[in-house]
Design goal:
The chain has 432 residues and is of the alpha/beta class. It contains 14 helices and 24 strands. The protein folds into three domains: 208 residues, 4-Layer Sandwich (Metallo-beta-lactamase, Chain A); 102 residues, Oxidized Rhodanese, domain 1; 65 residues, no CATH class. The strands form five sheets. It has a seven-stranded mixed beta sheet, covered by helices on one side. A six-stranded mixed beta sheet has the order 8-9-10-11-14-15. A five-stranded parallel beta sheet has the order 16-21-20-17-19. It is globular, with a radius of gyration of 23 Å.
Amino acid sequence: MTTVVQPTALSIETVPADGGCLGYLVFDGASRSGLAIDPRLDQVQAFVDVVRAHGARLTYVLDTHTHADHLSGARRLAQLTGATLLAHAASKLKHTARRLSGGDTIKLGSTTVTVIEARGHTPDSLALLVNGHLFTGDALFVGGAGRTDFAGGSAAELFDTFRRFEQLPDETVVHPGHDYVGRATTTIGEEKAANPLFRERDRAVLVARLSAKGTPPANMAAILRHNLGEMDAATIAPADAASRRGQEPEPFLLDVRSPLEFEGGRIDRAHNIPLEELDARASEIPQDADVIAVCRTGVRATIAAEALARAGRRATVLEGGMNAWRRARLPVREGRKRLPVDRQVQLIAGLMVLTGVALGSFVNAWFLLLPAFFGAGLTFAGATGTCGLALLLMKMPWNRLSRMPTDLSPAVCAAGDEAGGSCAAAPAAPRE
């Protein structure tokens, strides 16, 4: 988590999450009022903690657009804090919210927040300009841009959004909705100089570059239903869920994590049906049972509970998932621990780089090709969302139970990424 403090007493907190998602809190120091931007459902408590640490009150909460790759926590955060929920005028959100359009302003104490139309990635995309800081959502990334092949997306409108952005001073700091390159901020001037999509001056060429269809994010339909407010699963605190154990009728604990995660540690008498198998195995859940869905943080459990609710089943979500259950010091049946695949990749790549550098320095310079090879592989994985080493490790015997090692595999929002299901568009080589 990073903090940016301005001479005008404006402070900005970045709240990162798995998969490169970035959320933000903007505080006006004089009035101690805050604005939350793009809070993820599994990061709501982190946002609340930051607000408390600042001794502030949250005045506004908004998503820069309707997210398709992760569950929004905007409604939950607004409910917890009493903040006003904001949304683009074109948003199909089925909850009461103050609607915004380009040119509108909102006040955080003496700080003015200006709304800029940022359509293209989605038809309800907006950006926020605050004291020289531009929060772009998924319209503009460091070196790239949001994909436009989702429903309602438009590369032509994204071209117009870029023209609005480039009218801002070069020193304007850009805070994107995702970090796909290991760098959370950039500036308008840097993107003018180095981003081939942002600097493209021919509308037709940009449209052609962003025309490729990418892999949709996993569980996209369920995520959109939640984020539009069509479904909103109830939650139960770990202590309350624990108190219902042994009572009649006892709830059916449905653990929707991967078999690998379930094997590593579970609540006693929980039943493991991975989320991706829920439709095919729903008959294993007793028809008259009250279901409590469990996962690592509550994300997959929310998708499962809302799917069951659509089928007329009683289902709630264990708030905070297994992480919260453990923090409450409630009993866990521990199993064999295995490293997540992403950490196995990090260990192997790091070891190979160190080995190659050592051998290249003391034995033969040709060994330097080894760290170069792994560096190229990591660069490719970061750019495309596809990691060959991870795919290989998933086939290893010790990982044979691993199907979904995290709470929703990162789905990229960048354009041109056919393999990764992300929200970003991979930039093509610039024209000569």
